[in-house]
Description:
The chain is of the alpha+beta class. The chain folds into two domains: 118 residues, 3-layer Sandwich (Rieske Iron-sulfur Protein); 196 residues, Alpha-Beta Complex (Naphthalene 1,2-dioxygenase Alpha Subunit, Chain A, domain 1). It has four helices and 17 strands. The chain has a seven-stranded antiparallel β-sheet, covered by helices on one side. Strands 5-6-7-8 form a four-stranded antiparallel β-sheet, with no helix packed on it. It is elongated.
Amino acid sequence: MVQIEFSYWHPVCDSRQVADEPLSALLLDLPLVLWRDEDGVAHALHDKCPHRGARLSLGRVCHGQLQCAYHGWTFNHQGSCTLIPAMPQLTPTQAHQAKTVAVREHMGLVWVCLDAENADNAVGPAFEAEKNANLRKFNAGPYDVATSAPRIVENFLDMSHFSFVHDGWLGESSHCEIPEIELQEHEAGFKVTNAQVWQPNTSALSIQPGMVTYSYEVMHPYSAVLTKVPDAQSGVPAGYQESIIVLIQPLTSEQSRVWFRMAVADFDAEMEDLLAFQDKIFFQDKPVLESQLPRQLPLTAGVEANVGSDKASVAYRRFLKKQGITFGVC
C-alpha cells in the first residue's frame, strides 16, 4: 500500500537550482536526486543506485542521463539502466532499474510526486491568484524550520497570534479580539471565510490602520492559501486584495523547508523591500514554531487545549485525520 503522503505533489527546490549537475534533495525522509536533460527538462530519481546503494547525486550528468560515481552505471529519466561500463555488452533488466518519481515545474519551483505511477491523479496546491494578471507574483524563501510541516500550516491559519508575535506589524496587543469566523468543510478540504482582524498596516498601499477580511482554503496537507481584503477606509484602491500560498517541503517529520508564493497588487515597491517584509514576518514566527513541543502536530483530542478562536486549527487537524496523514503528526 502506498503511503498517503506519496500521493501528493510536494515542492523540493527552486527551479533555478536544477541544472546539468546532480542536485540532492530530501522529501519525507527520502533522499532524491534531480537534474536536467539536454532539452532542459527536469527529472528526479530516488538517490540510491540499485547496484551497491551509492548516492547517485555524487555522480554526473552524461548526455542528459545520470551516471553513478561508484561504477558508472547510467540511468535515463525513467530509471532504466542504459549502461554498465564493466559489462558493456550486457542488456540491463528491470532488476537494474533505479526507482523513479514524477516531476513537474510550477510557480518557480520543482515539484515531486513519489507515487510516480499515479502522479496524474495526485493532489497539488491550487493557487487561483496565479492566473490573475493584475497581481504581481513572486516567491519568498526558502526558510528552514526545525518543526513539522503541519505545525507551520496551523500557524499560517492562526490569526490570534498576530497581536503578539507580530505586534506593530500584522496586529497590536490592544486590538487582539478575533470575531467569529465562518467555516465551510467539503470533501477535498475546508474554507475559512469572513475572518476579521485589526491591523496597523492593512497593506503596502494603506494610509491608516483598519480591519482586514481574511479567507483561507486548505486542500493539501502541507499547504494553505490566504486571501486578504483590507477595509476600504484604510485607503486602499477599490477591489484591492492580496493572496499568499504557503508551500512546505517536509524534509523529515520534524524538519521543514518553506516557501511563500505571493500575489500582490503593488507593482511599484522594490522587490528587496517586499522580500524583506516577508522575511521579517517569518523570522518573528520561527522561534515560536521551533519552541513548540511536540514538534509533530498532535491529532489526539485533549492533548492540546482549544478555544473558539482556534476553529481553523481544529478544522485543519480534522482534515489531516480524515486524509489519513501520518507524517509530521502524532
